[in-house]
Structure formats: C-alpha cells, structure tokens
Amino acid sequence: MPSPVRAARLSLLSVAALSAALAVTPAQARQDKSQAEQAAAKQKLSNVHQELQALDKRQTATAARRDRLNAELAKQTTALAAAARALRDTDAQLAAKQQQLEQLQQQRADLQQKLAGQRAAIADLLRASYALGHGSDLRLLLDNEDVGRIARALVYSRYFQQDRVQKVQQLMASLAQLQTLEGQITAEQQALQAQRAQREQQSRQLARQRAAQQKLAAAADATYQDQAQRLAALKQDEQSLNNLVDRLQKQIDQAMREAAAREAARQAAARRHGGKAPPPIAVGGAGANIRGNLPWPASGEVHSYGNGVLIRAAGGSEVHAVANGRVVYAGFLRGYGMLLILNHGNGWMSMYGNNEALLHNVGDAVKAGQAVGTAAPPTGVNTGAYFELRHDGKPVDPRSWLAQHR
After folding, report:
1. Those residues with Cβ within 8 angstroms of residue 257's Cβ, 6 or more apart along the chain or in another chain
2. Better-scored residue on pLDDT, 370 or 1
3. CA-CA distance, 42 to 45, in Å (whole number)?
4. I need a surface site. Which of 107, 182, 278, 335 has the fewest CB within 10 A?
C-alpha cells in the first residue's frame, strides 16, 4: 500500500491536473467545434459535389439516350411514312382496277345484249328465207316455169344469203370480242385479288410500324423529367425549324435573284433586237386580300402550340394546302415529325407537320386545296396535325389568316 505521504502527494497532483484541465477546456472546445464544423462543411460540400457529378452523369446519359431514341424515331417515322404512302398508292390502284373491271363488265353486258339482237336477226332471216322458197334455190327452179319469177326469187334468195352471211360474220366477230373481254375480266379480277392481298399485307405492316413508332415516341417523351425540360426541348425544336426556314429562305432568295438576272438579260436581248419581251409570269401567293379567308388544312379540334396550331385530325385523313405553292422541304424534323413546307412567293411559307405520310416531293407544284399529306393518329394531348404560317421568315398567327373555324 502507498504511504500516507505518497497518497497525499498523488491526491494533490490529481487535483492540480483536474484544475489545469478545467482551466483550458473552453478554448479547446471552441477550437474543436470549429474544426468539427469545418470538417462537416467540407464533407457536405463533397457530398453535394458528388451528387452534382452523379446528376450530371445521369443527365448526360439521359440526353444520350434521348438522342438515340430520337434518331431511331426519325428512322421509324420515315419508314412509317413510306409504308403509309405505299398503302395509299395501293388503295388508289385498287380503285382504278375496280373501275376498269366495272367498265369491262359493262362492255360485256352491252356486247351480250348486242349478241342477242344479232341472233334474233339471223333467226328472222332464216324464217324469211324458208318462207320465200322453203330454204332451197333448187326447188325454185324445179317448181316454177315463170322465168321472171324465178329470177326475182333467186335475187331475193341471194340477198337473204348475203345478209345472213354478213350477220353470221358479225355474230362471230362479236363472240370473239366477248371471249377477249372475258379473258380481260378474268385477268383484271386476278390482278385485283393479288393487289387486295398485297394491301392486306401492307396494312398489317403499317399497323406494326405505327405501334413501334408510338412506342419510340413514348420512350423519348418519358426521358423528360419535368415541364422545364419539355419547354427547353420545344425551344430547341423551334430553333431547328428557324434554322431550316432561314436556310430555305436564302435558297429561295438566291433562286429569285438568278431568275431576275435571267429576266433582265432576256429583256435586254429583246430590246437589242427591236422587239418587246412578254411580261414575266407572276408568282401568286398569300396576300392581304385573302386574310381571314384561307381554308383550314384539316378538320378537328384546334389548340395553339408553339408558333402555330395543332389540329386533332383523324388518323389517315388528308391534310390540304391552304394556297398555291411549291414544295421546298419534305422530310423528318425533330419535334414536327414528317414536315412539308410550301413556298407561296412574296415571302410567304406554310408548314404542315406531324404527317403520317407526305404526298409530294421537293419541287412539286401544289394547288390550293390539294392534299399534301395524311395526318398521323393523335396519341396524346399535344398531338395532331401541325400548321404554321411565316412571312419573311417570321411566324404569324395562323388563326388571323384562316377562315373562321367551325
């Protein structure tokens, strides 16, 4: 056991140590707290930085996936448009074949009626010939002594014989024509049956491609996490359209300058030769006189969308040009699907988007009211046939130019 002196000394040392510890604790505590707060702040900052990096990676991966989906969607939509146009062409061919078949059947009916008349005429001739001389020129010679009567009878007999031969020949020609018609009708019926089978196959393929396209569209739409991203994508799509319109307008302006130069050269050549050149052909376009009177490109419920309108037209229904124009663009554009743009001259353009099939190619002249495409089936809220008007490259409110919607 320690001695009382040593125990007392240890007790005094413990008290002194405890006193010293109590004397420095507040300062050290503040320092330790500051260091702990700094460490916590650094850790929090590190965590935030890691979260931002992870978010950036996720956004990058999402954007890459969206781009892949949009690229696949562009290919699928283009293939769908080709299939829809092929089906439409087949339907037109079927209608033409059906009309040809009906015409041939009508010709057959008319010919059969003609054959009935020819057969009746031949029967009448045979009866008349039999009544004249019981059908025998030799009997006329044997039974009559009057030469004049015999001569007259022979003339009548030859007449009946010639007429009978002629009518028989006509009958045979008509029968041959009927046989030819029957062959044509059979061939047309077989061709019609084959085209109907082709049409059924095309229809099934179109249905599969529609389902695949809608699935891709839904997958691409699902990559947008909130409304802000959708609005940003819409702005990006609008900018893509603006860039396309600017490029087209430059090409149109260049073509107009070249046309003006050719016209000036033509006028100068005409003046040098002392003649008067005819006036150039005017290019018609949308103007102030038709404001509020343009026909709607499609029928359906109308909603404003971007710089234009969405028309919930029935899937497969025709989309029509609102004025005379020429196709300057026909293809896929992200955000607008299968898009067709018409140049109307005088700085005017009209745009028709979200088509399932485009019915014209670049360079085609289109009349007002003529079908330019077929509407894709509406699948959601912001779907439908898209229509937009621009003047000098700037969007204008289409509702103020189109007739009152009913």
Report:
1. none
2. 370
3. 5
4. 278
> Which distant-in-sequence residues (6+ apart) come within 8 Å of 318 by Cβ?
298, 371, 373, 374, 375
Same-domain check for residues 175 and 254:
no
On whether both 145 and 201 belong to a single domain, the answer is: yes
Write phi, then psi, for 320 (nearest 5 degrees): -110, 150
Residue 136 has pLDDT above 60, yes or no: no
DSSP state of 398: G
Rounded alpha-carbon distances, angstroms, from residue 344 to 47, 283, 321, 348: 59, 8, 10, 5
Domain total for the chain?
Answer: 2
pLDDT mean over 261-274: 75
Q: Which of 25-39, 83-97, 123-137, 158-172 has the highest mean pLDDT?
A: 83-97
Q: Domain containing 187 — which CATH number?
A: 1.10.287
Which amino acid would we find at residue 28?
A: Q
For residues 404 and 343, the answer to whether their CB atoms sit within 8 Å is no
Q: Would you give the distance in Å from CA 215 to the centre of its chain?
A: 19
Round to whole Å and give the CA distance between 19 and 270: 119
Q: What confidence score (pLDDT) does residue 49 get?
A: 61
CA distance 352 to 324: 14
DSSP secondary-structure letter at 288? G
Q: Which amino acid does the sequence have at 216? A: L
- Give 250: exposed, middle or buried? Use CB within 10 Å, 0-12, 13-18, 19+: exposed
195 shares a domain with 322: no
Is the Cα dihedral 385, 391, 395, 399 positive or negative?
negative
Q: Would you call 396 exposed, middle or buried from its count of C-beta atoms within 10 A (0-12, 13-18, 19+)? A: middle
49: its two tokens:
């930085």
Q: What is the mean pLDDT of residues 138-155?
A: 53
Q: Calculate helix-pair angle for 147-222, 4-133, nearest 10 degrees.
A: 170
Whether residue 289 has pLDDT greater than 50:
yes
- What would the pLDDT profile of 173-218 be if each residue is shown by its tens digit? 777 777 787 787 788 888 878 878 887 887 788 788 778 787 877 7
Interval 310-332 mean pLDDT: 92
Q: For residue 349, give the nearest of 331, 332, 326 by alpha carbon.
A: 326
Write down the pTM of the prediction: 0.63
Judgement on whether residues 211 and 309 belong to the same structural domain of the protein: no
Is the CA virtual torsion 296, 300, 303, 308 positive or negative? negative
Q: Where in the sequence is the domain holding 317, given as residue range(s)?
A: 237-272+289-400
One-letter-per-residue 3-state SS of 94-108: HHHHHHHHHHHHHHH
